[in-house]
Amino acid sequence: MSADKLVRMANQIADFFRSQPEDSAVAGAADHMKSFWNPVMRRQIYAHLDAGGTGLDTLALDAVKLMRTGDPVAAKTKT
Amino acid sequence: MSLLREADSGTPIRPSHEKVTLTIDGASVTVPKGTSVMAAASMAGNQIPKLCATDMLEAFGSCRLCLVEIEGRRGTPASCTTPAEDGMVVHTQTQRIRDLRKGVMELYISDHPLDCLTCSANGDCELQDMAGAVGLRDVRYGYDGAKHRTEALDASNPYFSFDSSKCIVCSRCVRACEEVQGTFALTIDNRGLLSKVATGTDDFLTSECVSCGACVQACPTATLNEKSVIELGTPTRATVTTCAYCGVGCSFRAETQGDTVVRMVPYKGGKANEGHSCVKGRFAWGYTNHADRITRPMIRKSIDDPWTEVSWDEAFAHAASEFRRIQAKYGRDAVGGITSSRCTNEETFLVQKLIRAGFGNNNVDTCARVCHSPTGYGLKTTFGTSAGTQDFKSVAAADVVMIIGANPTDAHPVFASRLKKRLREGAKLIVVDPRSIDLVKTPHVQAAHHLGLLPGTNVAMINALAHVIVTEGLVDEAFVRERCEPQDFEIWARFVADEKNSPEAMEQFTGVSAAEVRAAARLYAAGGNSAIYYGLGVTEHSQGSTMVMGMANLAMATGNLGRDGVGVNPLRGQNNVQGACDMGSFPHEFSGYRHVSDDATREMFESLWGVELQNEPGLRIPNMLDEAVEGSFKGIYVQGEDIAQSDPNTRHVVAGLRAMECVIVQDLFLNETAKYAHVFFPGSSFLEKDGTFTNAERRISMVRKVLEPANGLADWEITIRFAEALGYRMDYSHPSQIMDEIARLTPTFAGVSYEKIEAQGSVQWPCNDSAPDGTPIMHVDRFVRGKGKFMVTEYVPTEERTGPRFPLLLTTGRILTQYNVGAQTARTSNTIWHDEDLLEIHPFDAESRGIREGDLVALTSRSGEISLHATITERVQPGVVYTTFHHARTGANVVTTDYSDWATNCPEYKVTAVQVQRTNRLSDWQQEELDSAERLRRVSDGLIDAAE
């Protein structure tokens, strides 16, 4: 999937969780992506993150970073 | 009128806590208070003669055939209009009564043609029956009634004819149209011997009639009769089954002669429809034996080759070898599949099982992805389960009904009839919709509030409604305190109370006056039992899931959950979309909505299926297509869905399909997707298999085989054979065994079995030890998740914006006589009402573009362009245009975008920025499709005998 599309999806998810209570916004967005994105999509967004994460808004960026923690598929992308 | 009749008590029998006991012809009978003498007699097995009475209608007291004598009372009252009373002694067969009835029948017959032997209702005529029942032997007035026989036959409706010469003016048809359907298309014109049933127009076709069939069913003679009965004769066998159209899930009796279906008649015992029907289920079943139907498997190497018919064995072997080749070359995850909401629960369960266990991945998705996936997400988050809260009959107890983004009279007509009945009784209606749908103003129904918001602003509207409820002290604090998470409520209440969510602040987005929104909110919150019913106008947005949560918030805040007459109720689009979701069709969850990463659940499936299963979500439909375009997804098995027509951004869908090396389509017809397929498994129709469908009220109903499959195999058998060819064995000899497996693996289905469904007629899940008979209404004492969870629902405008190039907003929907991609209805006579998709445009927008009624116009968006004819109407507001997506040649989804719901990727069909201008040609896409369609559907001349 194109990076643009993944970034748009991540930002949309961030848009929703941004309005949730502060302590659960990043975790909520990360959990959502972890629950619904398949490993290929997650690897692709990690790769995009490593390439600078262009286009990801702050919350989405933090959520992708958090999702990566402990994600077994993250090991298959460079860190 | 129908052969193989169900029992008819003459007048409705309604439950009552109070009982009365009376004596009828010496027999004692105890009945609910309010029951008529006629119905009481019927309950005692004593059928009083009648003509104008039928239990689908209220008593009328017109025909004078049901007269009785009651001890202590004067005269001979009509038993249909006389309530049974305690201690009443009734005589139905005295000499006085017999003489009166015979006299009445003489009058009827004196004015009725005596062509019984050649009449289409011969043997199925209540007038004929009653003549026999009263012992009519002679007619003193002669047989040459002057008024009849001269009336011309009205055969304008494609499905039934109206022969006024046989009419006895009992008014059953008129009353059925009013009381059951709620359309008021019929009346009795004139009086005395001149009185006749009239439509107010020249004929039925040009009248307000919606062809629901209620009048035909109610007619006691051959006056209104199905053309199929006139052509074929009366049926000899009836099989109760479930309709394969919308999510109402009506029960029908399929009436047959041998292997020929004569007619489909709504079944009074069906709890979803209680004897009513719409034009699709009642009449539009002819597609099942249409000439376009493909009944032999076919394969081809390339989509540029013609199809070659092969045996089933060859088809399965070829498909399996291709999928194995692809997986060997590109990896296990390079294939996937789509389950069908048109197929049964059992078939859907098998397809996802095949993909998870046979393909070895979780790349399974279903067409709910593009319709109600936000419902699943939103209701599970807030209430704890992915389903509507009520049964359909609950609407009879509603005081206020809010319809949001749904058009029930077109898309869920049988539910709409229930709703209209309640509205005629005085319930209030709020419509939230960009268009003036019929319910805004229809005979004897007028919405109290029509919140005609701009497409894409649902969440702004729900927040504004919530703002009023919170800031004006309309919250049901006791309910919230007892039933909901307190902290989440506090956070939500603070959020919606913010001035930015006020109706005044949101008016700039929604376009609806703040005063109207405030009045609607007050009505919903304080009007008694308030119920929300919603459709794809809620879900098919970039904030579809947010809006579902917003509606759940509203219902929780006002305490409108957990009892009759309230709730949050999705009106599901397809017959088994609820079931397809329940059966584990989504890539992230097993049946019963349990995530694939849940070890305990997954191990249970692994243990029973004998394979290791993936613990990661698979690809969704749009992701599969994206990956295909990218080159990593190479094969797909599509059961009963036409993604090349139904899914958004058609060019992208087609590009994805073209990029795959093996596309397997299982369908009744060579649909649009099949143009890009390499293997075609001919499917079986709903009349040709056993199984179950689950409707929008979680009701599991039987689908029963009426005919042998024209293609030789039921769909569940096809999946089993394909799995076996792939080396994964599935041992089932009947769908009941599949349901047994579903029950073993799915807690909410633990108590479901064919035996239970047969015994109860239908079962609403959850059905398990806690609810052995099923669950008509959910969340009665507690939510499935425990406490209800309020969610903050910030309004985020869609990225799809109007501008100078695309200044209008397109929204799409359905029309009554057509269904989804038209695969079924476009192959029936329903095309007489709707043979093309039209673009609705407001007079202002039309005039500024020089568009006149019927002009061909180009509809252009950032995704593509199509041409279609325009119709000018104030049904749409200025700045908004609307069309349907029923006809493949239109290609409505060429113009829709791939913007989607943030949570589920449900496409944003309902908001597309477009421009409209006059044109004189088809669009390039339409012309290309026209040019290539025949080539992509060619079947080789050298046919191979498919018989096995």
Helix content of chain A: 55-70%
What coarse outline of chain A follows from CA principal-axis ratios?
A: globular
What's the CATH class label of the domain at 298-371 and 579-764 in chain B?
Answer: Alpha Beta
Question: From N to C, what is the helix and strand string of chain A?
Answer: HHHH
Count of domain modules of chain A: 1
Give the structural class of chain A: mainly alpha
- Please name the CATH architecture of the domain at 298-371 and 579-764 in chain B: 3-Layer(aba) Sandwich
Major sheet description of chain A = none
What oligomeric assembly is this protein in?
heterodimer
DSSP E strands of chain A, number: 0
Unreliable residue runs of chain B: 942-948
Helix segment tally of chain B: 29
Broad shape of chain B? globular
Nutshell version of this structure?
The complex is a heterodimer of chains A (79) and B (948). Chain A has helices at residues 3-18, 22-36, 39-50, 58-68. Chain A is mainly α.
Provide the fold topology:
The complex is a heterodimer of chains A (79) and B (948).
Chain A: H1 3-18, H2 22-36, H3 39-50, H4 58-68
Helix pairs in contact in A: 1-2, 1-4, 2-4, 3-4
Chain B: E1 19-24, E2 27-32, H1 37-43, E3 69-70, E4 89-91, H2 95-110, H3 126-133, E5 160-162, H4 172-181, E6 187-189, E7 196-198, H5 214-218, E8 224-226, H6 227-232, E9 237-242, E10 251-257, E11 260-266, H7 279-283, E12 298-299, E13 308-309, H8 312-330, E14 335-339, H9 345-359, E15 364-366, H10 373-382, E16 400-404, H11 408-411, H12 413-424, E17 428-432, E18 441-442, E19 445-446, E20 449-451, H13 458-471, H14 477-483, H15 486-497, H16 503-510, H17 514-526, E21 530-534, H18 536-539, H19 544-557, E22 567-570, H20 577-582, E23 589-590, E24 594-595, H21 599-609, H22 621-630, E25 635-639, H23 643-646, H24 650-659, E26 662-667, E27 679-682, E28 691-694, E29 699-703, H25 715-725, H26 735-745, H27 754-760, E30 763-764, E31 808-813, E32 838-841, H28 843-848, E33 856-861, E34 865-872, E35 880-884, E36 912-918, H29 924-936
Helix pairs in contact in B: 8-25, 9-25, 9-26, 10-19, 13-16, 13-17, 13-19, 16-17, 22-24
